[in-house]
Amino acid sequence: ALAVLAPKDLLGKRIVITAGGTREPLDPVRFIGNRSSGKQGVALALAASARGADVTLIGANLEVHAPDAVHVEHVSTTLELRDAVAGAAASADIVIMAAAVADYRPEAVAEGKIKKETQGDTLQLTLVKNPDILHGLAEARQPGQVLVGFAAETESDRDALLALGRAKILRKGADVLVLNTVGWTEGFATDGNTVVVINAAGDIVGEAAGTKASVANSILDTLV
Ligand code: CTP
Ligand code: CA
Questions:
Q1: pTM to 2 decimals?
Q2: What is the DSSP letter of 21?
Q3: What residue's CA is closest to ligand 1, atom 16?
Q4: Residues contacting ligand 1 via CB (< 6 Å)
Q5: What is the ipTM for the molecules in this complex?
Q6: C-beta of residue 22 within 8 angstroms of C-beta of residue 100
Q7: What is the pLDDT of residues 30-59, one digit of tens each?
């Protein structure tokens, strides 16, 4: 029913959406990851598709079913995500980086399972910084391409959250930043979301609260 009622205001637009959270392996059985489920990104893909867009969803360890209606590529690590995004973004009108990207990865991945017997009472990991995918897209962007970032912050004070967002959108070179507050019980793997959307000038250009589906449509309204 939603697909029938949706305005086709994204008809002909090519949109790349990343969703989920990247994982960085330590050894064949363990990883460093984050709590992103992929729900908001998948909701965006569904909503954009219903509104007529040609959607490529790049899913990093999705905990929800990827919609059949969109082209889906599955990845796990940040470097895999970067490569998939680079391939898909070249011809995209809009790239929405909803995925939670691991900022660091283990410097070395053990060939076999790390054993307690060969470690002491503490285990030290050396992590190296991952490339900033969104920043890389901004540096390589085609004229007219719209780049959208997401920033999940633990800051719950609205003005402080906006200040973080304004600094972040400038640092990233993105056009639009979707900001929300996350915490131990908020934001991840839940069915609802509350967001504030800003542009590169730091102006608030959208606000939404509700189900991840309704928030997805509000974000798309702002982009349209
Ligand atoms: N992002 C990215 N590549 C990274 C890290 C983040 O493309 N290596 C993207 C995310 O997908 C998101 C946006 O950048 O759309 C903001 O992510 P965030 O983690 O909030 O920004 P960081 O620059 O990593 O800052 P922080 O230190 O707050 O984590
Ligand atoms: Ca980060």
A1: 0.96
A2: B
A3: 151
A4: 97, 99, 101, 103, 130, 132-134, 149-151, 168, 172
A5: 0.99
A6: yes
A7: 999 999 999 999 999 999 999 999 999 999
